[in-house]
Specification:
Length: about 70
Amino acid sequence: MSQSPDLYERLQLAPSASADEVRKSYRRLALKHHPDKGGKPETFKSISEAYAVLSDTERRRMYDATGEAELA
């Protein structure tokens, strides 16, 4: 899967964002883009995939080191 925009951009965060900032940004964007609220399913999925990686300490560390994320 392409990393463009990268996972931090998907959540509108800087790479230095704390775990709390990741969580808050995800919640804000998920509420805004949720399909039940009129958002596009593709956008919501993209945000959720980014959160799945950036909220997991080990996956985030690997993403930061390689620029690639295992999204499966």
